Amino acid sequence: MRIYDRAVWELMHELANQLLVKEGDVVERAEVKAWFKSHYPLIKMNTIDRHLMRMSTNAVGRLHHHGKPGNDDLFFKLEKSTFRRYRPGIDQAPLWK
Fold first, then answer.
1. Which residues of 4-43 are buried (b: 16+ CB within 10 A; e: fewer)?
2. I want to staple 6 with a disulfide (CB 3.0 to 4.6 A). Which of 10, 52, 59, 72 is the partner?
3. Mean pLDDT for the stretch of residues 2-16
């Protein structure tokens, strides 16, 4: 059930378009949560964590979620809490079942 007019995965794309503009830009999990708290405060923190995992192309945990190739290939996880945009053709292919 949607709380806002768009699904959380769509809001993640909005976040990336605002915070990950230039090549090499990175974002910390805490920044993602702060952005959601400021823009979409009704989204639960656990939902944000799950979407970060599902939408990080190299996160093994994404295999346990029902992601959509293309829509969910947004982030590349650098460290436990650091992400950048996924770069098709440069980064490893997204993990999918």
1. eeeebeebbeebbeebbeeeeeebebeebeebbeeebeeb
2. 10
3. 95
